[in-house]
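Contributing: when you submit paired examples, paste them exactly as shown. First protein:
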Amino acid sequence: MSSITELKRRRVTGNNGVYEELYKEKLQVKKLYDFHELPEWQQDNDKILTGYIRETKSVMKCLRSLFIWNNESVNIYTHLVSAISYFLLMVGITDLLVIPHFPTSTFTDYSIINFYLLGAFGCLMCSSCFHTFKQHSSPHSDAWSKVDYMGIIVLITCSLISLLYYGFFDHKEYFHFFTVLTIVLATACTVCVLSDKFNQKDFRPLRAGFFIAFGLSGVFPVAAGMIKFGIQGIIQRVQLKYLGLEAIFYIAGALIYGFRIPETMYPGMFDFWGHSHQIFHVLVVVASFLHLKAVMGSYNFKHSRLNGVGLSTLHAAY
């Protein structure tokens, strides 16, 4: 190789090194990044093109990102605000202002309602934390995603058990059987969730289907209730109108999340507002509120029966 050729090669190599350093400095200065600027482990949804917080490797930087509007902000705040609201309800507002008092009301009745509120708070807070800290690094993202999934399992478990308690308040054997079944299914879900393979991108539709199946396991106690109490009886006992709406919101949210609607049809248009994960979050909050309405209605039905209050009075309240 001639000395002139070698000199040109070194000059090109040197220039490339300068360009690489300038590009790295530019990345460090930016607050938000495009999809192609992310490390491979962060590249999850290629239909959301902009508005990313790049890998921070710092807990404090993750926390500071709460004050930078990005494509995770709606995900974070829809569940953070809702989690705080449920926490406030749980620590006293519900007991003092929301739950009607009957002569037959017990500490367990209040505890069961708070049990559901605890599950809702835990799920939404876990979700908010995941979306806040997942950009720390790949290991942190994997760990927080498992926390997020565990929160979903906790919410489904608390939702089912709370309604089982009121729906079968006078048939404890049904309550015990279906509670054990719920715990077994929750344990099976937990084992799958803690598997690293389950957390991979290709398993997104399977994850959505898995949680839908667990949630729909509530069909079994409803069917048993229809056989035991009749259709009208189970409608009143578990407030089936609210449960039906709740199921619609949860299933719609899971399907929208699993198939990435609408950003798949219009990439880049819904980066900050309206993409599938955000829609899923909003529908989850609505569904969780509908379940609270169902639990409160079931509580009222139980004590109206025990205290001889007419069903017309109950219907007027709910």
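Second protein:
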Amino acid sequence: MSSDAVPHLSTSQPQKQQTQRRLSLRLYLIRHGETESNVQKIVIGQSDSPLTVKGVEQAKALGEQLAESNRSFWRIYSSDLPRAQHTAQLIIDKHSPILPVRFKPRLRELARGAREGLPKVLSEMEAFSERERLGIMDPIPLFETPGEGWSRVSDWLDEVMEDAAQESGYVVPDNSDNDSKDTPNDGDKVLNVLVISHSGLLRIFLERLLGTQRLRQHPDARFENKNGVPALSIPNSSLTILNIDLSPREIEISNHLDDNDAKNHQSWVASDAVLIEQLTSTEHYSRMQAAALSH
């Protein structure tokens, strides 16, 4: 997928439209808990650093808040980097029943190249000089651009949308030639998806789906300086709830493809992304701290 592409599933050119009910993904986007490198202001990237005591508390507090809300999740995804895995486990330990976590390399943090393992204040060029000064002989870590990060996370979203459409069975044959009605079980459906990832990748995900201007206008948005450019601040263990409506794309029904076969080739596209409830909220941790002080 190109860096500017909107997530969608491939399909042939439209000729005949299938009727479709509304299907939405409600993504609970979470950044991992605080790590030792976060405290030390060291670039981590795709390297790793263990959670601090505070990071563990943050993840537990979020898990308790989600458990108290009685939300049920269709799926749980996490970056496969250890700090995200640890955060995911602490969160789901508070839930019953516990769903399996699907660990995905495509949800990893952006690879930061020569800056990984060095202070955040260093630029890319300064990092190369610092590595030489320190005598670091290890190969330079992988470097990714924001476009490359978006490409892999949008591929992940494509996969999730496809699975949601297939497992929900939300394909309705074209009833234009008859008067049949939807069954009582028909209607809109929302699938809750828990996603544990990293600030850099989540920032790209939100900016591409919502647009930078839309984020800047949100009353809860906070920004920090990233190489001289304002960037959305995504604190450790913060929760953003994003609703994505999936719209059916029209599909071609050729001479060798009947209506039943066509349903299996239904394509989906993220038609709208709307922030709901929260943007980068850390209310769960503030509540835990307040409760501790009251005892």
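If you have annotations for the second protein, write them as plain sentences, like these:
The CA atoms of residues 7 and 157 lie 7 Å apart.
Residues 9-19, 172-185, 250-266 have pLDDT under 50 and may be disordered.
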